[in-house]
């Protein structure tokens, strides 16, 4: 049997091209933050609020947060040690300053070296990006808090945070 | 005539099977009943607990309805703004099927609202209430 080289080659080139475009579209977008993929992390961190992408904070922030779950922004969010450890390692492995996460470095711009910021909404870059949002909009009944990303960024759960 | 017999017996089988089927919710209720010395549970008491205002917990969450809303069949909203799935089993059939998850949220939410953990009696009443919603 003769192998049809030409259609095969065309097919492969097309496939490679679309893969490249797709990768570019995702990686080149500075408003993309990989959503949490681990079901355990999604369940435990997404119970009260959106399971924030680990790349939005540096590893040392997650390290500190996971050590203070009994006072998690005023709430007791304690977990059993085994679960907490699994979540901690996932967050640290996927943190904003972990290898291969160069697209979140923009959000971490201006964070003092060695600091472990706890609130994403207090990162200097976050504050400047949201400076035009008026106070009444934050207080809107469908927004309620600055942690409610999906209220405005409708595709936040898929990782997209453009306007 | 024959059709009616088939339908009737079909319904009878369905009723019998639900009555004898012990799912995770029934297991949980049995567990709470054993711990509460089996006074029996009441959806009415559960509803009262659900809508009551407490002063022992956090001031911004005085009752269950603060976050879950007054309608158990409608969604609630966490202080963060995140939507909470309706509590009623009729609307969210997957609810209360994971005992560890039920216990985790009872512990968290009772502490926040009542300022203490709920008793097995309270848990059983409340669960009976939302199951029948």
Kindly describe this structure.
The complex is a heterodimer of chains A (163) and B (133). The mean pLDDT of chain A is 88. Chain A has one domain. The longest helix of chain A has 23 residues. Chain A has 163 residues and is mainly α. Chain A starts with a helix and ends in a 24-residue tail after the last helix. Chain A is globular. Chain A contains six helices and no strands. Chain B is mainly alpha-helical. Chain B has a domain of 72 residues: Cytochrome Bc1 Complex, Chain D, domain 2 (Orthogonal Bundle), CATH 1.10.760. Chain B is 55% helix and 3% strand. Chain B is built from six helices and two strands, in the order ααααββαα. Chain B has a two-stranded antiparallel ribbon with strand order 1-2. In chain B, helix 2 packs antiparallel against helix 6 and helix 3 crosses helix 6. Chain B is globular and about 55 Å long. Chain B starts with a helix and ends with a helix. About 6% of the residues of chain B have low confidence. Chains A and B meet through loops of A and helix 5 of B.
Proportion of residues in extended strands of chain A:
under 5%
Could you state the order of secondary-structure elements of chain A as H and E? HHHHHH
For the termini of chain A, the CA-CA separation is 55 Å
Helicity range of chain B: 40-55%
Could you list the spans of chain A in which at least 5 consecutive residues all have pLDDT below 50? Answer: none
Under the CATH scheme, the architecture of one domain in chain B is Orthogonal Bundle
- List how many beta strands of chain A DSSP finds: 0
The percentage helix of chain A is 25-40%
- How many separate helices of chain B? 6
Assigned CATH class of one domain in chain B: Mainly Alpha
């Amino acid at each position: 049997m003769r192998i049809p080289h030409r259609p095969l080659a065309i097919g492969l080139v097309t496939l490679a091209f679309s893969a490249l475009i797709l990768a570019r579209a995702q990686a080149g977008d500075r408003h993309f933050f990989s959503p949490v993929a681990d079901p355990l992390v999604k369940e435990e961190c997404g119970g009260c609020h959106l399971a924030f992408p680990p790349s939005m904070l540096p590893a040392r922030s997650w390290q500190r947060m996971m050590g203070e779950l009994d006072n998690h922004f005023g709430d007791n969010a304690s977990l059993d040690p085994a679960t907490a450890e699994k979540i901690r390692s996932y967050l640290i492995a996927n943190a904003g300053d972990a290898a291969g996460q160069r697209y979140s470095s923009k959000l971490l711009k201006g964070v003092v070296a060695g600091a472990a910021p706890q609130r994403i909404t207090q990162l200097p870059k976050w504050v400047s990006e949201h400076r035009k949002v008026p106070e009444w909009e934050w207080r809107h009944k469908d927004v309620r808090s600055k942690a409610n990303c999906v209220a405005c960024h409708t595709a936040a759960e898929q990782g997209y945070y453009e306007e | 005539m024959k059709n009616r017999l088939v339908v009737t017996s079909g319904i009878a089988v369905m009723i019998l099977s639900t009555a004898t089927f012990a799912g995770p919710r029934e297991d949980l209720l049995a567990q709470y009943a054993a711990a509460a010395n089996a006074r029996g549970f009441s959806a009415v008491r559960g509803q009262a607990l659900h809508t009551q205002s407490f002063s022992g917990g956090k001031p911004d969450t005085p009752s269950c309805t603060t976050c879950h809303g007054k309608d158990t069949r409608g969604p609630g909203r966490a202080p963060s703004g995140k939507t909470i799935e309706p509590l009623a089993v009729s609307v969210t059939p997957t609810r209360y099927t994971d005992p560890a998850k039920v216990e985790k949220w009872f512990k968290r939410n009772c502490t926040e609202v009542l300022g203490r953990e709920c008793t097995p009696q309270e848990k059983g009443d409340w669960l009976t209430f939302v199951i029948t919603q």
